[in-house]
Write a structure and sequence with these properties.
With about 425 residues, the chain is an alpha+beta fold. Among the domains are: about 1-60, no CATH class; about 185-410, Chorismate synthase, AroC fold (4-Layer Sandwich), CATH 3.60.150.10. Helices cover about 30% and strands about 20% of the residues. The protein has 9 helices and 18 strands. The strands form 6 sheets. Strands 1-2-3-7-4 form a 5-stranded antiparallel beta sheet, sandwiched between helices. The longest helix is centred in the last third of the chain and has 23 residues, at about 380-405. The termini are far apart.
Amino acid sequence: MHLFFYSYIIGITVFKYMIYKTTIYKKFYRKEECLCQVLSSEIIFESLLGENPTALQSVLLLTAGHDTLFSVWDEPGHSGGSGDFCGCFSDAAVWGQTSEDPERKPGGAGILAVICQKRSGIFEGKTTGTPISLIVYNQDQRSKDYKNLAATYRPGHADYTFDAKYGFRDYRGGGRSSGRETIGRVAAGAIASKILHTLGITIQAYTKAIGPYSIAPSDYHFDEINRNPLYMPNAQTAKKAEEFLSDCMEQQDSAGGVIECRIEHLPVGIGEPVFSKLDATLAKAIMSIGAVKAVEIGDGFSVSSALGSQNNDAFCLDKNGHISKSTNHSGGILGGMSDGDTVILRAAFKPTPSIAKVQNTVTKQGEATTLSITGRHDPVIVPRAVVVVESMAALTVLDLMFSNMHSNLDGILNFYKK
């Protein structure tokens, strides 16, 4: 079995080396780093997961991106000791970039105590151009809260599907399906956001709706986002939503909501015309976040009831004589490529599945039972996920921007011009 794993690892390394040799412009990793990076994942695999080959997915298959590669790996917070950690490797490191500590926006006190440590890729306050390795230790785990879930499937969770697929699951906190997994995305996203910021590109996510309380674009006040714990751009709606969530908690229930994300000042032409469309790649990245059940771009589902004359964005010239649009129903994307307008996307999050209200379920042995989930669980996921949506958008855009560097000969010539 070990021979198979090492063959698999060497195969991945050779494949990456082939990409390195055939890529027309400089990649941000070298063949030696690929070997080190993949073998370090194998070491983590053996030390964390022992002889259980069905858990290979916990380390080697959680990689995203093409030109901006990042991988997340973890033992997500409930292994009972100093080894409770999540981490990421990121190739989103341009040599000379000033480093920035990635931070998760606070969604509540005391739920996840984190310490982020840089392990490689940064020297004297600047990135070196080699992959950055970051690790976060969870020092506030309570595995005892999950003891009664060892043989019981929680409604709305991935317990049953994990058992069916791998024949094994870590019931302490949800394992790979835990929201703790997203800390690696946020850490890598902070690096990507730093690079985008130097290019004048900004990404802002916020809570558009919680339960029945939604904010119309005409009522947005972006300076309010960080003034309330729900990250809503309207103080009055935020207050009503807080009261609604308090009622949910009293009823031992939870709520869902919508996060909206705006990408400003993105150049025209980012994204590919077919399989790596900007909207398709963003949708894939956002849908990979746990609890996201739908993604829409621009007017989204409402375009199905619009007329062509209503949905089309008329072209015009702005005050500086540049080509622009009079409206933005497309959400800043045409033909899978950015059109120069603000990219607008929304993600719908389901209600927190862990609720204290008694629910019907079955055990692993197929016996009918009921379940009431206790412990520290938020009545809504949305506020904590705002920074995750922001991070995944940043990583996606940066990756496509790097790919766009060789979309025409001028880009290659400018890149290598002395």
